[in-house]
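Q: Sequence in, structure out?
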Amino acid sequence: MNIYLAIVLGSMIAAWAVNTVVAVLNVKALDPRLPQEFAGVYDAQAYAASQRYTRDVARFDVVAETVGLAVGVAFILCGGFPFVDGLARSVGFGPVGTGVVFAAILLLINDVLNLPFSVHRTFVIEERYGFNRTTARTFVLDRLRGWLLTGVIGGPLLAALLWFFNAAGPLAWVWAWLATVTVMAVMHYLAPSLILPLFNTFTPLEPGPLRDAIEDYARRVGFALSGLYVMDGSRRSARSNAFFTGFGKRRRIALFDTLVAAHSPEEIVAVVAHEVGHYRKGHVLRHLALGVARMGAVFLVMSFFLTSPGLHAAFGMDGVSAYAGLVFFLLLFAPVSMVLSVGQNVISRRHEYEADRFAAQTTGRPEALVSALRCLSVDNLSNLTPHPAHVFLNHSHPPVLARIRALRALGAADATARDADLASAVEHRAG
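A: Exactly. Output:
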């Protein structure tokens, strides 16, 4: 068997096996005993529902990944790529145009195959547990908008990358890297005002106690607010969240309307303080820098494999092309990408602890963030006892119990320090 084909098929099967084992371990780690940190917040019925939800999602994911593996292996072994390549070449475009058509056909096939699973997840599982508020019309429009964005942004970028790899010689990977980074930066800058509004409505947070509390916090920590908005997240889901998007003058704080409706101003300020902590601790810039460096490394390595006859032969291709080589390299690189993602999650979890600590220290109310985390966990039916292997492989955030215990330990340490300062002051006056 071709060595490249063996690596690709072996990594696909290994990834499926690892994910399946970890999913089983995660379900077995479910503990019917409610953690004491959630006493009085989670009632027995809701906690039981959260565990059923975890089991249902795990079963669904295993089935979806099993079907995906079977279809993927069959597509490769039965000549799917040469067939699609023949369709793309029949259009009669040049190398760049043919490559765009080739990628578009593959994306369309992937989207069609994933459609039943997306429908089931949204309208069966999420509906069953009271999360789904997406209508069929919104679901269809979201997919159409997604295709439109892919065509308007992804199409020209892919064409540029293929042109570089066909015409720019040994330094093509540098130009491809720079082009991709440029598009990412522009998209990040324009997302708050041009892209996100295609999917959701953003309304300025109305004057009142909540806005006053957030603005007062921002002034105290010297954080310039360029936009404070409420997003109609309830159009699609009952879940709650908040996030920062954009940078510079286009930076926005977006609060889900479900968050505003269900949480106290003190809790929401704590959530905002956590997000501010990510900026103040440099997490956002570090994440972007790592992403840019990783992308450059990927393009560099890709340049050595892009026109490899052996790599193309592994997938049954008669000739060599940059566009097919790009797709085949991504399949070959998948196990490395998985390892890098795990490492990125390790860094992300560390950043979450740092942002929690920042929020606790700058608000002076660790319990406000604890309360917000507890309520968000209940609202979202979060798994309170994930298996460590599941956390290691898949979680960008630490388990909520670990975050709560870290915050309370920080609060206890601060209280001890205050008591020591007070005792010292009393002793000084007595002296």
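Residues 322-363 form the longest helix (42 residues).
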